[in-house]
Amino acid sequence: MTATAPKKVALITGVTGQDGAYLSELLLDKGYEVHGIKRRASLFNTDRIDHLYQDPHADHPRFTLHYGDLTDSTNLIRIIQQVQPDEIYNLAAMSHVAVSFEEPEYTANADGIGTLRILEAIRILGLQKKTRFYQASTSELYGLVQEIPQKESTPFYPRSPYAVAKLYAYWITVNYREAYGIYACNGVLFNHESPLRGETFVTRKITRAIARIALGLQDCLYLGNMSALRDWGHAKDYVEMQWLMLQQQQAEDFVIATGVQYSVRQFVEFAARELGITLVFSGEGDQEIATVEKVAPVGGELKAKCKPGDVIVRVDPRYYRPTEVETLLGDPSKAKAKLGWVPKITLPELVKEMVESDYQSAKRDSLVKLAGFRAYDYNE
Ligand code: NDP
Ligand code: GDR
After folding, report:
1. Rounded to 5 degrees, what are φ and ψ at 329?
2. CA pair distance 292, 312, nearest whole angstrom
3. Burial group, residue 185, by CB count within 10 angstroms (0-12, 13-18, 19+)
4. Ligand 2 contact, 171 CB (< 6 A)
């Protein structure tokens, strides 16, 4: 296969997000022609995919971006008609669970009805036999868990406007598969992270804050429920599964997870340890804190400036959710048996990569600060 005769055409919604970036890389490596839908924003929002940019004036560019939005049917129909994709990966969503309590109607529109709009576009354009559809479903569907670990047959009990919207998207995907014979499937993905993770999700918030605290750019990290348990994998591993799910004989739904669970508190502990900081947790509920017990060099280099006795993590109840998902643990046996899929990257490796990446960018910020400019800081 050559660059001028691509084998397949893929359309990715949510191309500017974490998964969109890794999936674009994967599909381009496989020789696909990749089209992505990005939203208009007042600032550039393509940081994660800028390295994939191809001059649209070049002959046969293999990576093309289109303006669009999941809340705009006519726009989606037009793009799908123009692109005639073999595969659509619907990754776009208002994906922050806590924010969905603030914007429930918009979340339902984008995450729930947005999925319907794409499936209807496939039907209206007569692409039922040509276009395969992947829906980014989520472990949040299990919410108040009915079974441990959670697998494909575990009943759903969503606990946020986000999860309820995704429940609609899950079932409309199943329905269009059964009603119209569309190759449409749900990947029920458990949390997956990376250095490209949005800064307000808990893992990235932690790795970013620990790096900044280590370099003296920030004093304290404020978190919500540190006892929440999650099954965290690496986004790079998980996008491979998204592609695999569309390459089968028959469309089916799969749970994708590592099968290992840690608490938010443990994630903080692991992240701090990467920079040589040992923490002690004390207090309960809103009063819980983490204090530096000791600071040691890492690989011969003293990376953290904080001192024993410094309190660097506190609880801020503003980060509590009206209804919380306390525990999630996936059973990926079906994906292993049918797709031959197993996650390659472990949680310690994931934490290491994320901390290292955030440490390097905090170092750049501290140089800016040393030069007399105000370093950018926020704690969301
Ligand atoms: P991100 O939040 O990083 O990316 C979401 C993407 O959706 C961004 O490109 C965003 O654009 C785009 N988007 C948001 N609203 C709209 C809209 N109305 N119209 C068009 N595009 C929109 O999410 P992830 O990459 O982490 O996740 C990808 C998908 O997988 C999401 O659907 C998420 O809900 C789901 N999921 C994620 C899991 C995870 O742990 N990461 C686990 C399970 C499911 P912009 O850049 O402009 O904001
Ligand atoms: P989640 O991810 O809600 O599982 O959704 P997030 O990282 O936001 O929260 C994980 C857990 O950590 C607790 N927590 C905090 N969370 C945030 N964001 N900020 C905090 O300060 C904080 N303190 C504690 C949360 O309460 C929660 O229990 C992610 C998203 O990517 C969804 O789109 C996806 O569907 C699911 O993962 C699977």
Report:
1. -150, 120
2. 7
3. buried
4. no
Closest residue by Cα to residue 138 from 158, 108, 116, 115: 158
CA angle 177, 240, 348 (to 5 degrees): 130
- Asked if 121 and 80 count as a contact pair (C-beta separation under 8 A), the reply is yes
Interval between CA 203 and ligand 2 midpoint (Å): 8
Q: ipTM of the predicted structure?
A: 0.99
Between the CA of 140 and the centroid of ligand 2 the distance, in Å, is: 10
Starting at the edge strand found earlier in the chain, the sheet holding 221-223 runs: 221-223, 311-315, 289-295, 277-282
Give bridge partners of residue 290 from the DSSP assignment. 281, 313
Cβ–Cβ under 8 Å, residues 228 and 325: yes
Q: What is the pLDDT of residues 125-141, one digit of tens each?
A: 999 999 999 999 999 99
pLDDT single digits (tens) 341-362:
899 999 999 999 999 999 999 9
Question: In the chain, what are the domains?
Answer: 9-189 (3.40.50.720), 202-229+263-324+347-371 (3.90.25.10)
Say yes or no to pLDDT of 378 above 70.
Answer: no
Distance in angstroms (rounded) separating the CA atoms of residues 156 and 137: 12
Calculate helix-pair angle for 114-124, 161-180, nearest 10 degrees: 20
What whole-number distance in Å separates Cα of residue 328 and Cα of residue 206? 19
Identify which ligand lies nearest to the alpha carbon of 235. 1
Ligand 2 pocket mutation, candidates 99, 167, 201, 314, criterion most atoms within 8 A of CB = 201
Q: Which atom, in ligand 2's list, is nearest to the CA of 136? A: 35
Mutate to test the pocket of ligand 2, among 102, 189, 191 (most ligand atoms within 8 A of CB): 191
Average pLDDT, the chain: 95
Ligand closest to 139 (CA) is: 2
| pLDDT cut 90: percent of the chain above it | 92
Closest Cα to atom 28 of ligand 2: 228
Stretch 328-348: mean pLDDT: 96
